[in-house]
């Protein structure tokens, strides 16, 4: 009986080995992807703001990452939730320290990071990276333990993050000093999240679209002149016939 050549056995061994290695790599890739994306969100650099606009303008050059003096920004890889090659940061690891000269925006060659924030009347208070939210169940200040670490860490202290006094119903003696985020002032730097003393941060920065609602056109601020102008313009619009019939029906008998 003729023996099989040794070269054939070696080829089979190498083929099996490579298939196994490829399978392991694939499993590792998928596992790492789900591990990386478990939080389901990420934060963009100052000036990115609208995600769709940002992605259309960003050329994945990495210049903003190089310009950051704190190594806050990272370029996303295939294993990250953010689009591959785009800049993002994780506030719990390294937050944005809100450099007064905003070097990341200055380094951007395409205005993916809006240059309008460099204007004298804007600056760090105008950027919109996210909004901090407080988990009252895990924040020890809500337990009655005195803690104002996040408040002290906020670069816009008493503007974006304030402490509000509340009666402690449990002890009937001491006041609670509770951290409260002002959504219209918070820029989403993440310094509060980084400073939080709990194992998992009781205060987190999320993308603005995760936090903010939308009122729509059904409600009007009677005290707001701009809102009143909006209503006047809407009243002058011609409604489609089907909408006009619906309004007439609702107004019957009035």
Class by SSE composition: alpha+beta
Tell me what portion of residues adopts beta-strand conformation: 5-15%
Order of helices and strands: HHHEEHEHEEHEHHH
In which order are the strands of the major sheet placed? Answer: 1-2
User: What is the architecture of the domain at 38-127 at the second tier of CATH?
Assistant: 2-Layer Sandwich
Supply Rg. 27 Å
Q: What is the approximate shape? A: extended
Organism: Helicobacter cetorum (strain ATCC BAA-429 / MIT 00-7128)
InterPro entries: 4Fe4S_Fe-S-bd, 4Fe4S_Fe_S_CS, MauM_NapG, RnfB_subfamily
Keywords: 4Fe-4S, Electron transport, Iron, Iron-sulfur, Membrane, Metal-binding, Repeat, Transmembrane, Transmembrane helix, Transport
Protein name: Quinol dehydrogenase periplasmic component
Structural description of this entry:
The chain is an alpha+beta fold. Among the domains are: 38-127, 2-Layer Sandwich (Alpha-Beta Plaits), CATH 3.30.70; 130-206, Alpha-Beta Plaits, CATH 3.30.70. 33% of the residues lie in helices and 10% in strands. The chain contains nine helices and six strands; from the N terminus they run H-H-H-E-E-H-E-H-E-E-H-E-H-H-H. It has helices spanning 6-36, 51-57, 63-67, 103-107, 149-153, 191-195, 208-211, 225-235, 241-251; strands at residues 74-75, 87-88, 131-134, 161-167, 175-181, 203-206. The strands form three sheets. It has a two-stranded antiparallel sheet with strand order 1-2. The longest helix is centred in the N-terminal third of the chain and has 31 residues, at 6-36. It is extended, with a radius of gyration of 27 Å.
């Amino acid at each position: 009986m003729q023996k099989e050549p040794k070269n054939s056995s070696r080829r089979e061994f190498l083929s099996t080995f490579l298939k196994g290695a490829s399978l392991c790599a694939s499993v590792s890739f998928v596992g790492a992807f789900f591990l990386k994306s478990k939080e389901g969100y990420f934060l963009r650099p100052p000036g990115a703001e609208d995600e769709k606009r940002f992605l259309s303008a960003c050329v994945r050059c990495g210049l903003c990452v190089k310009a950051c003096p704190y190594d806050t920004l990272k370029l996303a890889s295939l294993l990250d939730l953010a689009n591959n090659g785009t800049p993002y940061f994780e506030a719990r690891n390294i937050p944005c320290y809100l450099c007064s000269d905003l070097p990341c925006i200055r380094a951007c060659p395409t205005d993916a990071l809006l240059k309008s924030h460099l204007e004298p009347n804007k600056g760090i208070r105008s950027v919109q990276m996210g909004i901090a939210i407080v988990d009252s169940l895990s924040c020890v200040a809500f337990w009655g333990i005195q803690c104002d670490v996040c408040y002290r860490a906020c670069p816009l202290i008493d503007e974006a993050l304030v402490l509000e006094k509340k009666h402690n119903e449990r002890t009937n003696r001491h006041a609670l000093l509770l951290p409260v985020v002002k959504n219209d002032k918070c820029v989403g730097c993440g310094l509060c999240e980084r400073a939080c003393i709990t194992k998992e941060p009781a205060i987190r920065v999320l993308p603005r679209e995760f936090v903010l609602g939308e009122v729509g056109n059904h409600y009007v601020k009677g005290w707001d002149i701009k809102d009143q102008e909006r209503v006047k313009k809407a009243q002058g619009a011609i409604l489609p016939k089907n909408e006009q019939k619906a309004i007439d029906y609702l107004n019957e008998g009035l």
